[in-house]
What we know:
A: 5-stranded antiparallel sheet; B: 6-stranded parallel sheet
Amino acid sequence: xxxxxTISVWVDNTPGVLSRVTGLFSGRGFNIExxxxxxxxxxxxxxxxxxxxxxxxxxxxxxxxxxxxxNVITVVDLSExxxxxxxxxxxxxxxxxxxxxxxxxxxxxxxxxxxxxSPNTYSLEITGxxxxxxxxxxxxxxxxxxxxxxxxxxxxxxxKKD
Amino acid sequence: xxxxxxxxxxxECLKREEVKHVFGYPGGVVLDIYDELTRYPEIRHxxxxxxxxxxxxxxxxxxxxxxxxxxxxxxxxxxxxxxxxIASAYMDSIPIVVFTGQVPTALIxxxxxxxxxxxGITRPCTKHNYLVKDVNKLAYTIHEAFHIAxxxxxxxxxxxxxxxxxxxxxxxxxxxxIKIKSYNPTYHANPRQVKRxxxxxxxxxxxxxxxxGGIIMSSAAEELKQFAETxxxxxxxxxxxxxxxxxxxxxWMGMLGMHGTYCANMSISETDVLIxxxxxxxxxxxxxxxxxxxxxxxxxIDIDPSSISKNVVVDIPIVGDCKDALHQLNALLQEKxxxxxxxxxxxxxxxxxxxxxxxxxxxxxxDTSIKPQYVVEKLWELTKGEAYIxxxxxxxxxxxxxxxKFKRPRQLMTSGGLGVxxxxxxxxxxxxxxxxxxxxxxxxxxxxxxMNIQELITVVDNDLxxxxxxLNNSFLGMVRQWQQLFYEKRYSATPMTAPDFVKxxxxxxxxxxxxxxxxxxxPVIQQALDxxxxxxxxxxxxPEECVMPMVPAGKAMHEMLLA
Lengths: 162, 563
């Protein structure tokens, strides 16, 4: 499989910018695995976190092409730096009779939060990196997942430690 | 300052950008601008007959004048008709600003009459684009649009103007300076990289300069000549780069690539250090990528970092303006102890001369039928190589590139990247507007010219004495050439009927001339050049002539077909 890259993009918070960014990916045949976007502390700037796959040359092109967009302020390939990644998933899983305890046990082991309860289901909030969420969903699948929604990846660079 | 309407602010902005010519076509939502235009005699509006021509004319104008070309059209179809012209300017990095009218902001998104999301449509083919929603931001946006179009790697910018913004009133603030925190092109090349590159070049045994449109855009022809002459490095260029190095210079090898000269293509296959300046390793240049310049270390100078290592991974990347980088190289060279480069380079230059002698650009002469190459050759001779040449796309374009020996930058305007049939004629109008006294010739095919022939009335109307030389072979020649060579002569949809171009020219009020025999070529060209009016020359040329040499698609550059 081609390497995954997590790219942070600071952009002007103006209409149409997201479309410029995603249009660039589709127009040039770059891959987007996930994408998250929200305002930063400066309301004029938004930060987009994109997970993409591709070899070194493709990633270099992605970064250069992003830089070329007039509304893009900075691009950082976090994969080259020390960083922390998190994703979130909300999942509603069947939980009846004897499986109710088991589902809660899994939730507990992976530090999930129960966000909704019904007589036959639990809705859980899972946070963690890509792999952890995959692992939890894998375990819950056995009990019957009724609905699931996953966020893209958020990533932040670790500060330099002196 | 008192309040002005959006239309007034718009025209005031054009004045401040020193815009003298606007190519356009009116319509419902831009009525107020056209109304205001009557009060601005210093801005000349040229009414085209199709909006595509407005964009191409602005492009031709920009190339010839080194200024920003301007087009003005209405919403909906007016806007969409400019898209081909914008996309062509984008591929060739030509600074134009296209203003499109838009339905009133309150109607945007309602599928109003003549509404189209032109900002969305042109997002991937403009350097940047804007929808102006507030008249207070109009002046700043227009200034920013011109700034972005002309700076860095130039390109087209579109500004969409809703009708209510054009009609609204505001006290305008005309900005003096533009600061965009996210846009700072690198002009100054990194001196350390330049030094490294020079060391590599000085140690090269068989260096080659491969130059592109960047030389012309950055006005670096003088610096290039000095560098090439000092180190006696042979030069080849892309289609976009023609004129960036004198076509009669002893170091000039001709164009490279799919229809490049044998000598230029062989030099790429043999070179040990390839110096790419303002070129982008397009597939029409490289042929089979894995076998492109197989023995070479590559230095690449370009203002656009994304052009570097996009197709071909390079050894020494230099991001910066071509002129600046070449200037630095020349300055460094002056500090070095002079060497006898002519002697050092003698063997390499001899090899190149041998290739040139072995397979020069040539064609088989015929006493009975006109060879298209002969027409271009005579155009070159009779204009003393001084004319501004535009081309359409296809065989006409390649023969123009091969047989007109361009002397100086900005002499050739051709749709290089996008390859737009129908570009040449409207571009020639733009060139003629920019260079009123000059000879401007569109070298065309019978297919291409029909794509924007309606502009004949525009040149007649505006007294633009543009000459059109149609190499009329009754075919879509280049496509037919591929069918001839690679599809066993199954001429599917390429034989083509054309109107009587002489009568057509006359119907429009232009002059029509025809040559059917070789001996008629020179008199027809001479008569056209002596006629101070638009002239259409219909040269009935050899129907199945092919452009040679040719590197078949996907083959390596040394695998040229020669005849």
